[in-house]
Amino acid sequence: MTDILLIAGMWLDGAAWDAVVPELAALGHRPVPLTLPGQGDGAATATLDDQVAAIVAAVDASPERPLVVGHSAACTLAWLAADARPDGVARVALIGGFPNGDGKAYFDYFEPVDGAVRFPGWEPFEGPDSADLDASARARIEAAALPVPAGVTGGIVRLTDERRFDVPVTLVCPEFSPADARGWIEAGDVPELARAKHVDYVDIDSGHWPMYSKPAELARVLAAL
């Protein structure tokens, strides 16, 4: 039984994995969906460092080295966990995203309003990102979406331990293909993964939120790692 730490991307908490958790458990693993500081707990002043500390605490609490899964923007959080605990993380799985480099802001695509970044609606995600989500799934995601404190989105990524490049990485490719991802890395668009020593690619036929649209398939992909 392997611990699989699950970190959802922007606006989502641990409940985003509700359909994935029983599938992973049935496959013999212990899924641990994480709800981080600032995700609906009233901690409007939560920072990126607070979220990283919560993930590192979950890594430390695992009886064996866990698989750390980051989705979308939280791919950076998973990579920060590998940086903080390069000997404590068995593998990092990145779903639909890539880790930011040292000195970059965590998520600066939308401006905060009143100290938080709120879900902007579906218009920015039209096309391959959301093509496999019906109206019901979109409504569920939007209803679950939580404002993310500006102290998280504007936090600066700090990477300090080059042993992170020894941690195996699997890129789970939903709305883009493994060939796309390889091309971006080889072109220098993802410097962190260009330096990673062990990068694998797995395709999954879904949009950007496979935990909602393909939970059983996503669970099989993660369990196989």
Describe this structure in words.
- The protein is α/β, with parallel strands linked by helices and 225 residues long.
- It has one domain: Alpha/Beta hydrolase fold, catalytic domain (Rossmann fold, 3-Layer(aba) Sandwich), CATH 3.40.50.1820.
- 32% of the residues lie in helices and 15% in strands.
- The protein has nine helices and eight strands.
- The chain has helices at residues 21-26, 48-61, 75-84, 135-144, 150-153, 178-186, 191-195, 210-213, 215-224; strands spanning 3-7, 30-33, 67-71, 91-95, 116-117, 148-149, 169-173, 199-203.
- The protein has a six-stranded parallel β-sheet.
- Strand 3, helix 3 (75-84) and strand 4 form a beta-alpha-beta unit.
- Helix 2 packs across helix 3 (75-84).
- It is globular.
- 45% of the residues are buried.
- This is Esterase.
- Residues 4-220 form the AB hydrolase-1 domain.
Q: Globular, elongated, flat, extended or rod-shaped: what is the shape? A: globular
Count of all domains: 1
Question: From N to C, what is the helix and strand string?
Answer: EHEHEHEEHEHEHHEHH
Oligomerization status of the protein chains: single chain
Work out the radius of gyration: 16 Å
What keywords describe this structure?
six-stranded parallel β-sheet, 225 residues, Rossmann fold, 8 strands, alpha/beta
Ordered list of secondary-structure elements with their pairings:
Blueprint: E1 3-7, H1 21-26, E2 30-33, H2 48-61, E3 67-71, H3 75-84, E4 91-95, E5 116-117, H4 135-144, E6 148-149, H5 150-153, E7 169-173, H6 178-186, H7 191-195, E8 199-203, H8 210-213, H9 215-224
Parallel strand pairs: 1-2, 1-3, 3-4, 4-7, 7-8
Antiparallel strand pairs: 5-6
